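DM from R.C. (forwarded with permission)

"hey, sorry to bug you on a friday — could you get me a structure for this? deadline for the figure draft is monday and I only need the backbone to look sensible"
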Amino acid sequence: MSTERLKKFFYLFKRMYGKYSLQVFLLIGLSIFNGLIGSLGISTLIPLFSYVSEGRISGDDPISRGFSAIFQYFHLIPSLRVLLITVISLFLLKAIILAIFSYLKTSIAISYELHMRRKLYAKALWMKWSYLSSQKLGYLNDVIIYDVGSLSALLKQFATFSLNLSSFVIYTATAVSISPFVASATMGFGLLSILLLKPFMGKLLTIGQEGNLTKKEIAHQINENILGAKTIKIMGVERVLSEATNKLFYKLRDLAFRFRKMRIIIDDPVEPLSMIFITVLFAVSFLRPGFELAAFLVTIYLIKNILDYVDKMRDFAMAANGMIPNIQRVIQLQNELEEYSEEDKGTL
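My reply, with the result:
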């Protein structure tokens, strides 16, 4: 997504979801808290692995030093039971936070969807007939059902994006503190993969947008043909209209096939290339002085999650870019409802 389209997206996002700012900030706060707990839980594995292998908390990384300092401050003796309870408790807390986050995300999105549909439909009933009669068949239905549904889905996707972004930032900071070399090498690998895949992502976005337009065109033709069925039978043009719509069906099939091919090019090489990279990285790290297996394993686990978050945020960027037309159509309808409304607007 280019800088201009990014600015445009956030402007439209603010306009459509401005009244839900408090709920959005609540979800962002939970996202940050979830990232902190998750990072702490993963980091606790370093002293756990160290204790299992050496019988004590060793290691020169900040995580091991931090846990040693905590045990010394509270005059506790490190034990496998204490470390296991700590790890399990942190991951259980993370699971609870995620459950609360998912519930709130879904509730807010459903509430937004209901509010927008009621608001738009109530106002549409009081629009001037001259305007209503000039619209294509199914226009209001498409905006109120399809586009508003897309905006509700986008709100949920944005909440998930905030979760992924928070975890990405916190996990990256943790990985850098444990092993700057491994983290830096991985960030370079991730950036390179994004640059290489950028042309394919652009094509994927274009295909997706064309597919949505084709679906709308098919829906419009079907609605018109059903309403004009009597005239169609009198004129005997069933075959002509059927062939015209079949061309759109074939076009939709071809777009779906092209979309899937782009997804294969983007998604399928990720896992094998990541494993090759991790293997090479392990070999290089093993030969470096001060190599610690526990810290390396935890860093790799963090990095795997970081790369997953990058992939998910990339998917959100493409989805958000593709939904800009949906936002614009809802805003356009809102403006038209204000411009062509009757004097008596009724009550919601």
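R.C.: lifesaver. The chain is about 85% helix and 0% strand.
me: no worries. The first helix runs from residue 3 to 17.
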